[in-house]
Amino acid sequence: MSVVVVGSSNMDLISYVPHLPLPGETIEGSSFKSGFGGKGANQAVMASLLGGDVAFIGKVGDDLYGQQMKDNFKNHSINISHLSQASNSTSGLAPIFVSSSGENCIVIIPGANNLITIEEIRNAQNLIQKAQVVLFQLEIPLEVSMEALKIAKEGQALTIFNTAPAKKVLPDELYSLVDILCANQTELQTITGETVTSVNEAIQASKKLIQKGVKRVLITLGSEGSMLIEGESQIVIPAAKPPNPVIDTAGAGDCYLGSFAYFLAKTGDYKSAMEKASHISAISVTRHGTQTSYPKRSELPNNFF
Fold this sequence. Notes:
The chain is of the alpha/beta class.
């Protein structure tokens, strides 16, 4: 089985501070850490930790962070033959300030993520079309993702489109190219313009997307689980119970999707893929960090595989 991720890769730069600084204020932080992030990179790493044959298509900068990201992909045995490096550009960065009360503020600097070109996507045509599952997000230029979607559908790949971060307007052509559109409640509300405060409202909003051409809608509901809508049928999966107290939910959605993509490519069983992805993401929220919180295959039940 194979999973190709077309998307973003960032370096998270996290400063822990007593309070968020005011304009013009200089404060002393208590600690600092950096970590690999970006929705695309997170999803690719999770699929690889499960043993997937994973490739990542994206762009990093010609800087130290870019080299570290490339090394991280290699350390996870991810194919980066179509990960390009932009000259005279920073890699994607996310400076994050976290206060002692848990408040945060984040600055996203897309950097090289915004510089990947349609031509670079076309150069990866063979890789995309041979994949079983191709996974997308909204952290690289939309026209680039659209080209990759078209290429994927010319082959036999199943396409999963994660509408994060959500945009109010998506081109109508996109919907017919998507086999599974994945959104949380907030994202679903943004892209449909519908109020989504209950499961029934989520179902109705999803049907609006299906009318536009999407084959299936996967809704992640946090502690309420997840739901797949296809036509008039639904698959509802309760959230798995975390094995320990929840301490950090960052990256849990990417953990779920990377796991879901892996198991769907492996078995084609939607319900089973959702159940296993729920179990794995429930583990991740009991650990600090994003990619560092993701469980390895050896930590999971043998009957998962």
